[in-house]
Amino acid sequence: MADERALDEVVTFTSDLIRIDTTNRGGGDCRERPAAEYAAARLAEAGLEPVLLERVPGRTNVVARLEGTDPSADALLVHGHLDVVPAEAADWSVHPFSGEVRDGVVWGRGAVDMKNMDAMILAVVRAWAREGVRPRRDVVIAFTADEEASAEDGSGFLADRHAHLFEGCTEGVSESGAFTFHDGDGRQIYPIAAGERGTAWMRLTARGRAGHGSKVNRENAVTRLAAAITRIGEHQWPLRLTPTVRAALTELAAVYGIQTDLSDPDTLLDKLGTAGKLVEATVRNSTNPTMLDAGYKVNVVPGEAVARVDGRYLPGTEDEFRATMDRLTGPDVDWEFEHHEVALQAPVDSPTFARMRAAVEEFAPEGHVVPYCMSGGTDAKQFSRLGITGYGFAPLRLPEGFDYQALFHGVDERVPVEALHFGVRVLDRFLRTA
Ligand SMILES: [Zn+2]
Fold it and tell me: What's the rounded Cα separation, in Å, for the pair 258 and 245?
């Protein structure tokens, strides 16, 4: 059981890490080093030997290994990113980099994504050092840079260049799971992530004949692009139920006592009401047009028009995704991936999933644990290249009114102290039994 000091430390560490501004504006504009040094110092105080790793100066990652008692057991990776998305102070009730603790709540950017989890990991391993606890499996701890952009300076760099540090790791746990989802009707659901959709950020280029805006032009690049973008934005992707999504729907239906009919998931989602939101983005692929760029003067038809589309695809559907994009863009518009990441699928019937479930149920007996698939992606994508199966497990028990999904990258991001305490207890229990 996590001790009193661990419960104090998780709050202090969350607050301290928030105060270290690690805003990632993309394009390399971020400096995680002070946060990495902070985390490494806390690990070193607990007798670990963390290493700091950088591809680019200032973009620092931290890796440490805690030796388990059973050398034949597979190792477990526990990872959290150190960077955060930008925050506009003027929009916030409390300064986003103050880390202020007010009325039992820690405020600031990273409070749920994911300096909270970084702090929990630190608090747990330090409590173990005080108590002399050693886990059964080796536990590899990684704090990464650059998760909120390309991961090139973070987990991607670690997977490519420092694979040996992750030797023996078969499974990993990190963000976006085991938080409280209130359905608005008294039920509390704890979704644990066992999969991620793949990322397909695309650039579309339409070519045509440049010319005077007053002349007949049937090869207008803007018209061609607009037509393709409309087809893509309005496309109804077919239902594709992956094993994780099937399990999510089946378990949610059981929570609500609804007849499970996986042949008609849309109707089932309707019946699930607000809880359906946990699944609705993952029953099919998606393509959202997000950027348009063409022309420089109203009476000049440009020879080229460019758009960007945020595509996400489910595990096992990549070929279909590409073929559909070829068809929707048509002969006059080319498309390519600007950023492409794999889709992930993790088993929900594994001993590790069962242990995560048991740890949550022990401290939140009122909750219903269900597996789910993330609609977006995390560092688990990069670590999957090392054969590591990723789960989303960063436990938080949130009171009603704390909309986790809205706080993620949102204004007034904050986390209750009680939620951090729950996180430490559950993470401690899971890692001891993992
Ligand atoms: Zn995150």
Answer: 16
Distances (CA, A) of 215 to 71, 73, 224, 280, 300: 76, 73, 17, 47, 10
Contact 140, 64 (CB under 8 A): yes
Q: How far is the CA of 148 from the centre of ligand 1 (A)?
A: 7
Burial of residue 166 (CB within 10 Å: 0-12, 13-18, 19+) is buried
pLDDT tens for 237-286 read 999 999 999 999 999 999 999 999 899 999 999 999 999 999 999 999 99
Catalytic positions, written as ranges: 83, 147
Indicate whether 434 pLDDT > 90.
Answer: no
Mean pLDDT over all residues of the chain? 96
The helix/strand/coil state of 296 is: coil
Q: Is 224 helix (H, G, I), strand (E, B) or coil?
A: helix
Backbone angles phi, psi at 369, to 5 degrees: -85, 130
Task: Tell me how far apart the alpha carbons of residues 413 and 403 are, in angstroms, rounded to a whole number.
Answer: 10
Cα of 80 to ligand 1 centre, how many Å? 8
Nearest to 145 by CA among 30, 66, 305: 30
Q: What is the CA(379)–ligand 1 centre distance, in A?
A: 9
User: What pairs with residue 173 in β-bridges?
Assistant: 78, 391
Q: Output the CA 327–ligand 1 centroid distance in Å.
A: 34
Residue 1 confidence (pLDDT) above 80: no
Question: 142 CA distance to ligand 1 centroid (A)?
Answer: 14
The predicted structure's pLDDT at residue 73:
96
299 C-alpha to ligand 1 centroid (Å):
45
**Cα gap 205→403, rounded to integer Å:** 38
Bridge partners for 52 per DSSP: 62
Condensed to tens digits (0 to 9), the pLDDT of residues 141-160 reads 999 999 999 899 999 999 99
70 in helix, strand or coil? coil
